[in-house]
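Sequence in, structure out. Go.
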Amino acid sequence: MPNDPQKVRTNNPVHHRDTVAMTVCSPSMRTPSSRGIAVNPNSPTITSARSKTSLSVTLNKKANKIMGIFRQNNTASAALPDLISHEDWKLVLMECKTSPRDATIWSIREGFFDGEITSKVLPIHQACALMAPREVIETLVKCYPQGIKMKESAFHRLALHIACQTNAPIETIEALVHFYPEATRVQDSLGRLPIHYACAHEAPSAILELLLREFPESCTIGDQNGWLPLHVACRRGVTLYELELLLDCYPQSINMLTNKGSSPIMCAQKLKSTQHEEMVQYLEDYTKRSEKTEKDLISFDTWEPAHKLSTIHHRNVAAKGA
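Output:
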């Protein structure tokens, strides 16, 4: 005995599938031709059915086209930033795969910096601000290679600036530098390089080494207030090894002053932490050593990056041997 169509619809929760099943299977719904009865293809019944089918297909195509446009102009512009905001990295990767164009869309994020400053950003800026894993950064770059070279609107910072500012994982920094090494040379609207933010936010030594290896001259560049990376490091507090990295790249920075006349030692003296005395002592000792060997120092103007890196390497080896 055939199943009652009404029961099939009741038991199956997907009602639109039940409707299709009944239309195909129910004897009462079959056309004469499906029962083997010869019919005139031009009969009013068949012509009407074909017209309805054709109209339905046409309407569906138009609807799909409209929804596609809607997704591109509306949903797509919101989907990826919202997923990044929720730090749902698996869904972010899926969205990039299904709709890579989303990575090119700018959005306005209120309170993007410090919860106060609003900025117009790309998904890659937002991902770096939330310390996204390396796989996400690499995927966003592949979806929109130019995005890594674009600056957000508030402070004109690149993705690398933001990653250093938020203390992103070393893997993320490595990916950003790999795809766009020139980012280490770019200053934001405040005159700051990525290394300024790395020093300000207690970045691990490995990140400082990476940034210095890519652009050793960064130690010579001050921001609009005259702060070198060394001034920032002394004011915020870093390890003695990190101080050595910065001083080895630019020994003369120990005597450089900010626009308001602060030396690195003075910046360290303002530091309120357990590192205060240790840093000040190290800087004072370094100053004394540099004064004794000042005549033997190579001028920074003619000191090539390779010499700086070689100096760092040999001093580290000597320190370990001692």
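Check: The two ends are 94 Å apart (CA to CA). The beta strands are 107-113, 117-121.
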